[in-house]
Amino acid sequence: MAAKKILLVDDDPGIIEVLRLYFEKEGYVVSTCSQGDMALAAVDSFKPDIILLDLMLPGMDGNDICRELRKTSDIPVIMLTARTDTLDKVLGLELGADDYIAKPFEPKEVLARVKAVLRRFESKPEADSASAPDSSEIITYPGFSVDKVRYVVTIDGEEIFMPPKELELLFFLASNPNRVFTREQLLENVWGYDVYVESRTVDVHIKRIRAKIEKPDVEHDWYIQTIWSKGYKFVTK
To answer: Whole-model pTM above 0.70?
Structure first.
């Protein structure tokens, strides 16, 4: 099995050096970048399996980098930041970050988070064009389908890009129409109740899913409904 590739984007040379040495000792291939405006080019050239991305960077900050990256890629991203404001964390998750680590941190914690995020990401099955799709892995309603074999969401004939965990959350809800699930139940069924994932993550993912599948000028016979103080359900009429 090929070694996993990590891109470290941080303007603190001390952090870069410590994490680089630690991950190389663990068998990872590491590339580093200290300029925000060079990060996207580094992603294109290095093609990492996961990115550790500092929030405060010269040239282009981490949130802007994550926003641009998510337009074309679902590479896992873990944000690194000295900020502890919950709003900053929520914003990073809304922009597509997979996890969030506050500085200062221990390298062992970062390694554990990296492994956890990669496990979740790698749970996505590879599409096999030569095989017939399993009907249990495709959910279809009028004007809506979620294909968990090819990892494609289609709304009114248009394919919608979604990172793996957004698609898996939507698939789970759509597979159980008109049933209410608490945030904890969704974490357990979609994330596997990973110790590092907070219940707030469910809210962030639901918000991002709604922004992609719901259109103000189009009424469908299905939608995601918030059940206050309870959780969420996928409603079909």
So the answer is: no
